Amino acid sequence: MWIDSHCHLDAPEFDADRVEVLAAARAAGVGQLVLPAVAVAHFEPLQRLARAHGLAYALGIHPLFVEQAQDGDLECLQQALADAAADPLCVAVGEIGLDRFVPGLDLPRQQRFLQTQLALANAAGLPVILHTRRALDEVLAALRRQPVRGGIAHAFNGSAQQASQLLTLGLKLGFGGTLTFERSRRIRELARTLPPQALVLETDAPDIAPQWMQRSAAERAAGVTSRNTPAELPRIGATLAQLRGWTLEETASITRANTLVALPRLAPLPAVPDA
Ligand SMILES: [Zn+2]
Q1: Which of 2, 126, 183, 229 has the CA that lies 20 to 30 A from 175?
Q2: Worst-scoring range by mean pLDDT, 4-8, 47-51, 226-230, 268-272?
């Protein structure tokens, strides 16, 4: 059984066929998914979706949604976490972090939201799911100011040194579609050489389509995009297996165990049998 540790199944890209997408993931052997939230307005529909299908979820304000968030949203998050305290499906605070890739964003505001959300995670006794795009050093600094109870640095795309700093701080590193590209040399090398207990798998669906879903330049020019889905997770896992020289079963079991260490509340969830 595989775990997709990061999947935006509540995204509008899945409005037309969400149940079929989930069924396909389960048929492919993905026994659990973690659905991170991005904005307060999405919490309720996300929780409804998660509860309807026994899926894990996280509550948080994504750095790309900080701009449009109200300051009161942090109190809403605090309240939502309190309301979900007894919900075994609520496994983390996320997706939170910093993004310096998208130009023109207010970094100090992102940092303020991150700092408060790290504190809320600690107060709730939950790990975190971190977004760190082009901002790993800044996220590391925030974690040093405010150590957390572990979690996942999702879509890890940093150096060996940054990887080891995250591991020292108790985080696991999320690997997904980026791993499947030949040109992702640094990431593939890290996935091959990091300690086995560092690695968790994710799709980040509908984003970060793996190499085999890429469109041609002509298709992209025509506006045709690829929608990643959680059913791709085992094939991403197969890429990791190949890099590590592990069997598929070893890869599934190692990454599953790591995900359970990062997100301990996942453990008691009923597993869906392999297809
Ligand atoms: Zn995400």
Answers
A1: 126
A2: 268-272
3-state SS class at 42: helix
CA 207 to each of CA 11, 156, 213: distance values in angstroms, whole numbers, following the listed order: 10, 14, 11
97 CA to centre of ligand 1 in angstroms: 10
Cβ neighbours of residue 236 closer than 8 Å, sequence gap 6 or more? 175, 176, 177, 179, 180, 201, 203, 210
Q: What pLDDT, on a 0 to 100 scale, did the predictor assign at position 275?
A: 38
Ligand 1 center from residue 7 Cα (angstroms): 7
Q: How far apart are the first and last CA of the chain?
A: 9
Ligand 1 centroid to Cα of residue 123, in Å, is 23
Cα–ligand 1 centroid distance for 100 (angstroms): 15
Q: Is 103 helix (H, G, I), strand (E, B) or coil?
A: coil
| Cross-strand bridge partners of residue 36 | 58
How much distance in Å is there from the Cα of 194 to the middle of ligand 1?
23
Q: How far is the CA of 155 from the centre of ligand 1 (A)?
A: 8
pLDDT in tens, 100-119: 999 889 999 999 999 999 99
pTM (two decimals): 0.95
Q: Running DSSP on this structure, what letter comes out for residue 214?
A: P
What spacing in Å lies between the alpha carbon of 129 and ligand 1's midpoint?
9
Give CATH superfamily name and number for 2-264: Metal-dependent hydrolases (3.20.20.140)
Distance 8 CA to ligand 1 centre (A): 6
- Flag whether pLDDT at 273 surpasses 50: no
Q: For the residues of 213-230, what is the DSSP string, one character each?
A: GPPPHHHHHTT------G
Residue 6 CA, ligand 1 centroid: distance in Å: 6
Q: What is the identity of the amino acid at 259?
A: T
Interval between CA 112 and ligand 1 midpoint (Å): 19
